[in-house]
UniProtKB/TrEMBL annotation:
PANTHER family to which the protein is assigned, alphabetical: SUCCINATE--COA LIGASE [GDP-FORMING] SUBUNIT BETA, MITOCHONDRIAL, SUCCINYL-COA SYNTHETASE BETA CHAIN
Protein name listed in UniProt: Succinate--CoA ligase [ADP-forming] subunit beta
All residue ranges annotated as the ATP-grasp domain in the record: 31-255
GO molecular function: ATP binding; magnesium ion binding; succinate-CoA ligase (ADP-forming) activity; succinate-CoA ligase (GDP-forming) activity
Superkingdom of the source species: Bacteria
Organism: uncultured Desulfobacterium sp
Amino acid sequence: MTNVHYSCDIKAEESQIGVLTGMKLHEYQAKEIFSKEGIPTPNGHLVDSADEIPKAMRAVTGPPWVVKAQVHAGGRGKAGGVKVARNSYEVAVATEGMLGKPLATKQTGGDGIKVTKVLIEDGVEIDREFYLGMVVDRETRMPTMIFSQAGGMEIEEVAARTPGLILKEHINPITGWLPYQAGNLIYSLDPLPSPGVRKGLASVMANVYKVFIANDCSMVEINPLVVTKDGKVIAVDAKMTIDDNALFRQKDLIELDDPNEKDPLELKAEKYNLNYIRLDGNVGAMVNGAGLAMATMDVIKAAGAAPANFLDVGGGANEEMISKGFEIILLDRRVRAILINIFGGILRCDVLARGVVAAAKTKSIRVPLIVRLEGTNVEEGRKILQESGLKFLVAKDLAEVAELVSKQVQGM
Ligand code: GDP
Ligand code: MN
């Protein structure tokens, strides 16, 4: 795929900033990188147990302090994952209230993510809050700085309500970020900040671009970027997502990956090199090729159902990968029907069939299975499935797939 680097257009970005693919860093990790690149952040100390609170209190100055749950999701403030504390007792109560418990925010959905690390920071006195972010705009294929004086709010909300308050600067990668571009953004502010604050903002913008490029980010976001009562510009929040395709040359960043944050099924898929993403629906799907996978999602939706996952086993899948992929779908408790849609080219239908049969031997199939097989060795593939004793419905084409899915989801 040639265009994956530009995997994020700005419109999708505004509505989906929290769900960008890529390797997400924790706030405390992003802040360490920011700090090294000259972006001011509050003093802070990370704890993973209540025993460490006294040590943390010696490392920060306060009062006030801010106690922040470290999970890969925004919207923590509204969900109780960010608390301001005025004394050490409140710090302890807030920290113990978060550690070991799940935090569900608008972005995590469902049961949330278990908090295993908490950041204790010096609180700042906020005078103004801005939004500052950077992504790659797919249309112009340029890194793009996004700035708004409606900081602190979710950018999706700002985009929906007051799109005029979102300003953008495209960056030519050859010239890099230029000072006049900071001017364009900063001189749009009303009221205009003092010269000292303007200088602080310009410096953060230039450094955000540096961080973005040096770390192969697909997204950097500071929300809010704060002006304190004493006129300092500080990144109070920090989000960074690293482009997966660049991880081969970002060895230090790979170390920062936190397996705690991952969906267990996605983690298993990663282990077997399967291209798997969990979705919200209940029709499990195993497909080969990203294009066919997307078409299959459409067919499932057109049939009035919703896919439980995206699983592209790819052209080079072997029997073990197929079998593990099928097993992952079987492990997903929400799945009410399974669809296998394979157009065999490099992936032969007999290999597919053997993989499916192997998985069915280890896990029982408790839901209807719909199979559409075409292409290389299709006869052999069908024969293997038939002789295995597996119960399944056969679809000859996508229209029949839609019909069968639609029948299966009725009353689900
Ligand atoms: P998010 O909700 O996950 O985006 O977490 P944030 O780090 O953005 O924190 C949520 C909100 O808490 C911010 O928008 C601020 O309004 C507030 N907040 C965070 N840190 C401080 C601080 O040091 N002082 C004050 N007064 N408010 C803070
Ligand atoms: Mn935030």
